[in-house]
Write a structure and sequence with these properties.
The complex is a heterodimer of chains A (about 350) and B (about 525). Chain A is built from 18 helices and two strands. With about 350 residues, chain A is an all-alpha fold. Chain B is α/β, with parallel strands linked by helices and about 525 residues long. Classes of the chains: A mainly alpha (about 350), B alpha/beta (about 525). The interface between A and B is large, with 40 and 63 residues.
């Protein structure tokens, strides 16, 4: 027997996840344009790996594979992790990262909906802690390298490690990394950001990718995949705290624009922190959660040991979610007078 | 006069499907061969049958009397002979049986004597009794005896009489059609209700997807001797819920666990107003109502149906089914109840019979895990966090569910409707609510047993003490008797009598029931 309601909206988790993936495509095109087609190789590798891992985990857990695989969550995790690590990283890096993301962070915690930590960020954190060296070799912008890895070269390099030129010719540190090391050499922010890998706001090329991620995020907001709370709070948190430091001492602290346009800021704000499973659920809670990630990201960037702080900031705020949610319950109909 | 409208949180826009049943005017459904009239058609005590098997009853004759305060009378919907008084399957999600009076109709439809009265000649209390004896209960679905709500309170609590013409559930159009065709009658009912409540303002709330009804009601309102405001509100499910409509129109929220009168509003369904008009101005008790027959039928339409008409007879008036029937729902697709069988009677709460087919109402896809996307929270008109309640209900963490205000859930179905994981959320809340209620009843029973046990222990203790005292007295009396010149037999008798009196007194004290909050 059934119970009301007998109708439901034409929607599903698969459709939501598919739209998330769709929202990433413009940024990926920009990525290819500025950094070469290696990202396509790593995305494909990530997709296949994630689906194999997901299928294995579902089978081991005795769950029906097709409906659960179709939820698309593994695909989203795969793409987010692939976009978070260097596109020219060796093949095993993404495989190890996805193993921790999908098997450990998700399925061992009870599967989709039960995981406390953002799977992609768990994978990223494991990789940056365990394999810091390959995690710092990013594909250099084509305009700077004067050449780019073609598709076959990229496949060769990712799977075999063989390269027709030197690694230095095609790879570079990220702008955030460069800023950190150069600041240690007592150079001023203004001097550093005149280096060729920096663009107008952030990194050469990567700032355009960030812009497209922002546009994808706005699409998700318009398509009601996400609410505005977490991205706005994240970007405001990051922007305000970096703005304060920038105003106090512009020679040692980069501008808020730089912080918003580099690293994982945009991807984190719109695609990672907005993961519903591991994020806060109440409107006020989402604001606290987002702002917390923004602020922690900045603090880790300027005083932590790692160039970017998004992953650790997200994981730290994931821990706080139950507390945030329980303290930010909105007033229920008919209880509002009592609360005020 | 445009009113500032407010918004309630959330809400959804399901496909309306209202056009199909508003193409034709209301039709009078034929008298069925057999009428099954349940004695429990309202909230509160079931009515007490006052006819016997074999008795001939006239249309409109009382066949069961209101029993207790929260109750209402039941009447014969048509003339005929009572053939059975006893259990019959009811329109209930579990197909429960309940007491019913079955009448074999004679087709003459012979009225008993009807007594129209001028409401102005009666005081409010007499009017209320009249409505109770006329069997008037809220026709919006809750079927609460209307006379109880038509009390202004001391001191006057009600300022606003709000007529609910929201009818936000998809498919259902019985209120829409009633307003289109019977607006004057509704206003005549409003006049009586306004008088009874001494209400200062009268507002009719209608969703803006019913333009014909709005025009009809505006025209009828213009004819009234008193001001009636027709408030056109945006179409958004569940704005027809009393709490939501009050919020939209007044901006106020009915306090949790309270009634709409707490914010000075008395809310009634438009159909109830019409029934009150028929009861007072025509002397006709509530023996029929408008029912929408829609869904998987050839000809969807509204019918004026006698209470007690078997639903299968009514469904046949839909002239067949274009697709295979996959079930029946009483009410709408958002809150209606799934019927186990279709030989159950139309009752005062029946606003719609929805015939299901696989295409119109496809079975819900496999429920997937909750991803905490909070679409349910965005849709919840009670501002709840359905994803948390679901979690607590699943974990049988009922204390936490109550702390998160489970009992403020109105079971409107918005959360389940929007859930991308197709989780039957409302079912979880119903389960949690019933478990909590069962726990409470169990606790009460346990408390009662404990109290009885403690009283028993106290009594045993007291009796023991008394016996000891008696023995001591006897022992004391013996030497006294030996020394006294009195007859020892008389003294012993006296002591025995004294002891018996004390025993009786003690017994009296213990047999008194423990004081219990009732």
């Amino acid at each position: 027997m059934t119970s009301s309601p007998y109708i439901s909206q034409q929607t599903s988790v698969s459709i939501i996840m598919l739209k998330v993936v769709l929202a990433l495509i413009p940024a990926i095109i920009a990525y290819v344009w500025y950094f070469g087609p290696a990202i396509l190789v790593s995305l494909t590798l990530a997709t296949v790996t994630a689906l194999v891992l997901e299928t294995t985990a579902l089978k081991l857990r005795g769950l029906p594979v097709k409906p659960y695989l179709m939820d698309g969550s593994a695909l989203v995790t795969a793409w987010l992790l692939a976009l978070s690590i260097p596109s020219i990283a060796p093949w095993w890096l993404i495989v190890v990262g996805l193993f921790f993301a999908i098997i450990v962070a998700k399925h061992l915690y009870g599967g989709l909906g039960n995981n406390l930590f953002n799977p992609a960020m768990v994978g990223y954190a494991i990789l940056i802690i365990s394999f810091p060296v390959p995690m710092t070799h990013w594909a250099a912008p084509t305009v700077l390298a004067g050449q780019q890895l073609g598709l076959t070269d990229a496949i060769q390099y990712i799977f075999n490690g063989t390269l027709s030129t030197t690694l230095d010719a095609i790879s570079t540190a990220t702008p955030l990394d460069t800023l950190r090391t150069q600041l240690h050499l007592n150079r001023s922010v203004a001097e550093i950001t005149h280096m060729p890998i920096f663009g107008t706001f952030g990194g050469q090329g990567s700032e355009i990718v960030a812009l497209f991620i922002l546009l994808g995020g706005i699409y998700m907001w318009l398509a009601r995949i996400i609410t505005w709370h977490i991205p706005v709070a994240f970007l405001a948190g990051l922007g305000i705290i970096s703005g304060i430091f920038y105003m106090l001492d512009a020679t040692h602290y980069a501008s808020p624009w730089f912080h918003l346009a580099t690293g994982g800021a945009m991807l984190g704000a719109f695609f990672i922190a907005t993961d519903p499973v591991t994020g806060a659920t109440t409107p006020r809670g989402k604001l606290i959660f987002g702002a917390g990630i923004g602020i922690l990201t900045y603090l880790i960037r300027i005083i932590g040991a790692y160039p970017d702080g998004v992953a650790f900031a997200v994981l730290l705020m994931n821990i706080a979610v139950p507390l945030i949610d329980s303290y930010t319950q909105p007033a229920v109909y008919g209880h509002k007078d009592k609360q005020s | 006069m445009s009113r500032t409208l407010y918004q309630f949180h959330g809400g959804v826009h399901p496909e309306e499907h209202k056009q199909v049943s508003t193409q034709l005017p209301i039709a009078i459904a034929p008298i069925p061969a057999q009428l099954i009239v349940p004695t429990r058609q309202h909230i509160g005590h079931p009515a007490k049958p006052c006819v016997s098997i074999g008795e001939y009853v006239q249309k409109g004759q009382i066949i069961a009397q209101a029993d207790g305060y929260i109750s209402a009378a039941i009447h014969a919907p048509s003339s005929g002979t009572v053939t059975h008084i006893g259990m019959h399957p009811m329109p209930h999600p579990s197909g429960l049986v309940d007491n019913a009076i079955v009448i074999a109709t004679d087709g003459k439809d012979e009225w008993c004597e009807r007594q129209p009265i001028d409401y102005r000649n009666l005081n409010a209390s007499a009017l209320r009794n009249r409505l109770r004896d006329m069997g008037i209960a809220g026709l919006g679905g809750a079927v609460f005896p209307s006379f109880i709500k038509l009390n202004p309170g001391v001191p006057q609590k009600v300022q606003t009489l709000l007529l609910n013409g929201g009818e936000c559930e998809p498919w259902i159009t019985c209120d829409d059609m009633t307003m289109r065709e019977r607006a004057t009658g509704i206003m005549a009912g409003v006049e009586i209700m306004r008088f009874m409540l001494r209400a200062e303002t009268v507002i009719v709330g209608i969703e803006d997807n019913k333009p014909e009804a709005i025009i009809a009601m505006q025209q009828a309102a213009a004819q009234c001797q008193f001001p009636v405001e027709i408030a056109v509100i945006p179409t958004l499910y569940p704005s027809g819920g009393a709490k939501q409509m009050i919020k939209v129109i007044t901006g106020k929220e009915v306090p949790s666990g309270g009634r709409s009168t707490d914010v000075g509003v008395a809310t009634f369904n438009v159909g109830t107003a019409y029934a009150i008009h028929r009861a007072i101005n025509h002397g006709e008790p509530l023996i029929s109502r408008i029912v929408t027959v829609a869904g998987n039928v050839q000809q969807a339409r509204n019918f004026d149906v006698l209470i007690g008409t078997p639903m299968n007879a009514l469904v046949q008036l839909g002239q067949g089914h274009p697709a295979k029937v996959s079930g029946y729902v009483m009410g709408g697709p958002m809150m209606g109840i799934d019927l186990q069988r279709i030989d159950v009677p139309v009752v005062k709460a029946t606003n719609c019979i929805l015939v299901k087919s696989q295409t119109l109402f496809p079975p819900a896809p496999l429920a997937m895990p909750c991803i905490r996307c909070t679409r349910c929270a965005d849709a919840c008109p009670a501002d709840l966090q359905p994803q948390e309640l679901y979690w607590f209900a699943r974990a049988k963490n009922f204390d936490k569910a109550q702390k998160y205000n489970l009992f403020d859930c109105i079971e409107c179905g918005c959360c389940s409707y929007v859930c991308p994981s197709h989780i039957p959320l409302v079912q979880y809340y119903r389960y949690a609510k019933s478990e909590i209620a069962a726990n409470l009843a169990e606790h009460k029973a346990a408390d009662h047993a404990r109290e009885r046990h403690e009283t028993r222990l106290a009594r045993i203790e007291r009796e023991k003490k008394e016996r000891a005292e008696k023995l001591a007295q006897k022992a004391a009396a013996k030497p006294a008797a030996a020394t006294s010149s009195d007859d020892p037999a008389t003294a012993a008798k006296k002591a025995a009598i004294q002891a018996a009196i004390e025993r009786a007194k003690a017994n009296q004290a213990t047999t008194q029931p423990p004081t219990e909050p009732s």
